[in-house]
Design brief:
Radius of gyration: 14 Å
Shape: globular
Number of strands: 5
Number of helices: 6
Strand content: 5-15%
Length: 154
Amino acid sequence: MPNDPDDIPCWQRIDARLTTSGKLSPADPERLRALGVRHVINLALTDSPGALANEAALLAEAGIAYSHIPVPFDAPDEAHFAAFSETMAAAAEVPVHVHCILNWRVSAFVYRWNRQVRCMPEDEARDLLQVQWDPAQSDHKDAPAWARFIGDPR
């Protein structure tokens, strides 16, 4: 979309209601609000490199609901995905932005959610995932955990 920012790291628009990215900066809550975002879900740990300090307060000041589901990069699990799915369902039809630090956690979660909840065709969901990364093709030491998480064991 023409108003989407090109300077928020790893920005990706999934559809009219859902956007994703890497880490946010202190100016981004107001920018997200201006884009219509009404709920932000953060999958990064509070001590992740580059994590936004006081994120919940900054989003509250911008009038944006906030959910934090901290997912250790080396150990995504079913409880994390259940919490994510419940949070997405509770957000109903409001515009949602999901982020972490590099959009790797998020891309895997959104891939599973697109496949399992939205029943998106595999090729379409995988294309969206691969904009950010592909755990099955990555040489990152934790990629096997993510490949298993998305149902693509190596």
